[in-house]
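Illustration 12: N-alpha-acetyltransferase 80.
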Amino acid sequence: MDFSVVLLHRNPQYLQKCCDLINSEWKRSDTARFRSLESSCDQLPTSLILLRGNKVLGHVKLSVIPSIPNSCFIESVVIAHNERGKGLGTLLMQKAEDYCRTVLHLDVVYLSTKGQEEFYRKLGYIECMPISIYGSFTPTVQNSFKNNINVERISTNDIKNIPAPPPMPVKNNIISTTKTFMKKDLTNC
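Figure caption equivalent — predicted structure in token form:
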């Protein structure tokens, strides 16, 4: 039987099946999941689903990175548990990359993973520095006034009382639970 990769927002009849598939991997309330899935559009964010007939086998979500033009973040990739190991993840990723390159005209795709680094390396991804998909914001006096924040209320004592962040895990001495960030240049494909 043939497979197809389609845009979720053009095929809303698959919303519930897609929600169930993603929640089988990363549990979240149906309401929150539906809101996220319903935000899919032709630009970004975009949800692509892998189908065999009318059965949802996989999902990938592409999201905007405000601070990095001509790029996107592959926010989630999931293949149904009973369909793994059959090359469907590779197929879905190739179709997602094609969409990024030919429809969205993007140059680079980024993702983060825990434990699937080798899979992504086989697809041409390389490790990179962590990125933020939320853009960047540097508080300034102008931004503070615009957002009605009273900068005079912050004292140096307040800053001294902020605890230091915990130390970063050391890869060779402990099992790291941190994500590995990876990227792929689409201009060479």
